[in-house]
């Protein structure tokens, strides 16, 4: 009787544990870039950069892209954490002049030809 209960509990608990752990592991693998350097295009064609909301949404997209391209190091790997921070800092610094130009042109009624920001990264 006890043996049957244990088998039933394991039969239910094990698949549930696997199902719950899969979503946790997937984002980390997806966020790790395949290359050591490159660039990513962040589009803002659908945003109105004349408004504070449009600019804020662009900043959010850029920050998300920087996190995605630079990866997410393990919390115990200090060297990888420094490299990741540096990668993000460089990517964001390269985006700043592009965003400033696009916002200035939008406020003057002009269209920024690329409708996108290029984030360059190097790991």
Q: What can you see in these coordinates?
A:
The chain has helices spanning 2-31, 52-70, 78-107; strands spanning 37-43, 116-122. The chain is mostly helical and 123 residues long. The protein has two domains: 1-30; 32-122, no CATH class. A two-stranded antiparallel sheet has the order 1-2.
Helix content: 55-70%
How do the helices and strands follow one another from N- to C-terminus?
Answer: HEHHE
Alpha-beta content class: mainly alpha
Question: What is the typical, i.e. mean, pLDDT?
Answer: 78
Approximately how much beta-strand content do the residues carry?
5-15%
Distance between the first and last residues' Cα: 57 Å
Count of folded domains = 2
**Strand sequence of the main sheet, in spatial order?**
1-2
Sketch the major β-sheet: 2 strands, antiparallel
Number of strands: 2
What is the radius of gyration?
22 Å
């Amino acid at each position: 009787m006890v043996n049957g209960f244990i088998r039933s509990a394991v039969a239910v608990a094990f698949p549930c544990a696997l199902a719950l752990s899969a979503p946790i592991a997937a984002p980390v693998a997806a966020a790790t870039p395949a290359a050591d350097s490159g660039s990513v295009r962040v589009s803002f064609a659908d945003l109105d950069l004349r408004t504070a909301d449009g600019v804020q949404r662009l900043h959010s997209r850029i920050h998300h892209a920087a996190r995605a391209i630079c990866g997410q190091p393990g919390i115990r790997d200090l060297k990888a954490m420094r490299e990741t921070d540096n990668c993000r800092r460089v990517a964001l610094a390269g985006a700043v002049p592009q965003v400033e130009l696009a916002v200035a042109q939008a406020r003057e009624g002009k269209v920024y030809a690329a409708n996108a920001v290029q984030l360059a990264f190097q790991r």
